[in-house]
Known about the structure:
Oligomer: single chain
Number of strands: 10
Strand order of the largest sheet: 1-2-3-5-4
Amino acid sequence: MHVDPAEFLPRLGVPEPASVEAVTGGADGLLWRVRCGTQTYALRVLGTDRQAQASREVTMLRSLADTEIPVPGVRAAAIDAERPAYLMDWIDGRPLAARLLDPAATEEVRRRLMIEFGRIQAMINARTGPALDDGPDWIARRGDPVPGATGPARLLHLDYHPLNVMVRDDRIVAVLDWANATLGDPRYDRARTESILALMPDPDGTLEPLLAQCIADWRAGYGDPTPPGPEFRRWAGAAMAADLAPRLDDPAVGWLTPAHLARIRAYR
Length: 268
């Protein structure tokens, strides 16, 4: 279905942009780079019936705007529209994953970035708000909740990985994609991040040493060198399988094979 960004920009206060460039699309949203005078913005448009997702992400970004956690500013939002849309500051940089895989990146740079990656997640997990009311339900929808995981409710990103973190000049400048954010036991967030790192597609094993070092440095930055318990790891594998199994034949995730999905389901 064709979506014209010109339908959304006037409602967001940008009636006559200098240029609009499609950047990427996903399963639930589209993104454009919008230039207006000296300013550059990101226009994000979600699919129909995604109002709750839009409200969550906008709430999260606005609540974190004046904190140490780097996030793009939200300039305008039309959350209640049939297709929710919001205008954010454009973040110059590239995903942390790209820098980690860059042959020009030194080991010192990679390790420093992953330590910072862990430190920022620890800051996220130390927060107690904003108020969100579906933490246990969201966690249960992705897998069986861990019995006894009833510690103080902290902020969880639940999709915190190197593709959702932007870097520039070898510094982390933004944490993106807060659509899964909720409140709960931080061990869920740590387990989900570790599962994403540990289960990256690596059919020939060439990434294994890099991933092992990345996980160790992330844990060090977080301030806890021990892995999450097996019950949280089991939940994280089930959560990933729940997200990916419906996309097994999707060309957009061509790396997802039956063998890799089986590995995800066996993750402990």
